[in-house]
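Researcher: Please generate the 3D structure of the following complex. Treat every line as part of one assembly.
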Amino acid sequence: MSRRRRQAQSVMMISMTYAAAAIATLPLLLILLHLLREGAAFIRPGFFTEMPMPVGEDGGGMANAIVGTLILVGVASVIGLPIGIGAGMYLAERRGAPFATAVRFLSDVLNGLPSIVLGIFAWEFLVRPFGGFSAMAGGLALGAMMIPLVTRTTEEMIRLVPVSLREAALALGYTRWRTSMTIVLRTALPGIVTGALVAIARIAGETAPLLFTALGNQFWSTSLDEPIAALPLQIFSYAISPYDTAHAQAWAGALVLIAIVLVISLIARYATRSRFGLGGD
Amino acid sequence: MRVEDAEAEAAWPRKATAEEMPEPRKDADTQPAPAVSIREPVPEAPGQPEQPVHPRLATHRLNAYFGEVRAVRNATVEFPDRQVTAVIGPSGCGKSTLLRCLNRMHETVPGAGVEGDVTLDGSSIYRGGSSAIGVRRNIGMVFQRPTPFPTMSVRDNVASGLRILGRGGPSRSEADGIVEDSLTRAGLWDEVKDRLRESAIALSGGQQQRLCIARALATKPRVLLLDEPTASLDPLSTQTIEELVYELRTAIAVVIVTHNMQQAARVSDRTAFMLGGELIEVAATKTLFTNPSDSRTEAYVTGRFG
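Model: Done. Output below.
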């Protein structure tokens, strides 16, 4: 092959990867642009402090939905993070054990489970037996979605910690348990935090499980045993209504939801800018 | 089970005798006394069997396994106090495995097994209820690659072996004294005394390795094991570490595994040669390199293989 031809081929391949990289970010850019165009005009201070107006009337905000989403994410995190991180530590420590292999496989299956399936399941076991929709049921359903995500990222991050570090701690007279907690977990922590925040960002926008559990609420409620409003649910109910003003509110709500996810991602980046430790990219 | 000394002699005729032990070097004696208390040297007493004196560390017909593979075969060797013993041999000869049996690190590998015994000052580190944790606190280890804990500062790295002692350990101010003392012994204090709060991974590779030596020394071990400690370092850092090893012998027993024969010749008092999992010859370093009694040793040290 001539030199000229090699160079031409190289330029072509590089151009193609550049193009692919650009196209990969295109959907996000288009969504952001459209949301800004449609929703930005309706974002005003009242949007964050006022309650939603009855369908058909102008104005109002999404205060209850924003607070509701934060409560749901909080409940989900309280359940999902400890279990997910604990399971991830177990999988990393006992990577070859039959039980670990089974858990890893089932985690991957659960990760790929359509969220609507999880929602129906949660309705059957968390709503129906307790006689009503509740924030608790919504938080549990979202927590169940978080567990496999957190489990797998925790496992990956702990596996990135070199075996030599573990051996160094053992050689100093550390017990296995102490080595895992103070050396391995600490070293992997930035990566685990990133994984946790990515999981939180992911569930914050989930709608399907909430349709069957938290239901949504037009009124102010922070009670865990009452139906609770959530941004995705509010967006959904506005978007399927026939009024233009409701559609505008939906766009604005979507913009706020994306902003929340973006802020969480930025916190993840900031928390894990590698000062020391591994991972976090 | 403790193997009788006489039996060990019979099983291992080539074992180095006391006559082959080099005299303690003069320049080592003129060194200023280190800050730590110097333990009484264990005298070699070949002619006094009624007063059996134990070497600091010894293996007795030691076999080490990885699953079915026997990586160390029937190794019986003594590591005297205040001497550096080098273990040399070609790659895969079992020298690192032998070393890792000496502080019970071998058993941390899945499928690993150990037969025979290792004694520290005459008592078994495997039998009689001795715990791996306790053994490792008495026998420090430094690895091929520097392993500073990346989440800890320089100071906390050195103090990490002390912190696990909990309430029985030193207070914070006592720990600071031990940290300074250990870093001084590792020849690192002057370079890091203003950087104690910085992350340990900001240090250079050679500094990191000396930090690991300081960390191992902080718990006041009776023996220091070095597993190819200079394999990942540049020549200058290697020289610094070698000088350090040379000085450490004034206080404790040192066992150093190295694939570098020149290094063994430079830093050690005694050298053990391993081949295919077997200890072929253990002798005073000078004897082993200039007048080996086994033809395989001679072939290896003269560069005919390995």
